[in-house]
Amino acid sequence: MARNIEIKAVVADPAALHRRAVALATDGPYVLEQHDTFFECSRGRLKLRRIDDGTAELIFYRRPDATGPKTCEYERSPVADPEALADVLAQAWGVRGEVRKTRTLYFVERARIHLDQVERLGDFMELEVVLGADESIAQGEREAERLMAALGIADSDLLEGAYIDRLSGKADPGTRA
């Protein structure tokens, strides 16, 4: 499985965060409309992502529900007929819920900064540092922490879980949303 180090944070001032992301970015911004359908899954999270450019992919991932930098293992597979696949997965596993968002994507070398405007939730930032096959988790965590500081993300801004958890009411009530 591929791996990355991730953080998720609530964003109080999206315009300021966009300015900081632009200053750091080596590529972007790219604006994407994403519609994620999450399916029941006992060993992680399984979602079908449909993007406004007509592409789609099935994504399975596992990561701890914790604040701060965390390791995420994931697999992605392109999907040619997302509507048919959504129907089959819904019948087989059941739908957990849907997340719709406008994502502004910036690249900082191998890291991805996602500035997300999530329907019914608000503004968030996700940071992903992609790890090489032989790269240590500690290296990725250090890079994530450096980027967090450069973006002005405080520990108190960090969230655990996924957007779907917040929408389905399963997020830790002690975390900010």
TrEMBL record:
Coiled-coil segments: none
Gene3D superfamilies: Hypothetical Protein Pfu-838710-001
Protein name listed in UniProt: Adenylate cyclase, class 2
Domain of life: Bacteria
InterPro entries reported for this sequence: Adenylyl_cyclase_CyaB, CYTH-like_dom_sf, CYTH_domain
Annotated ranges, domain CYTH: 2-169
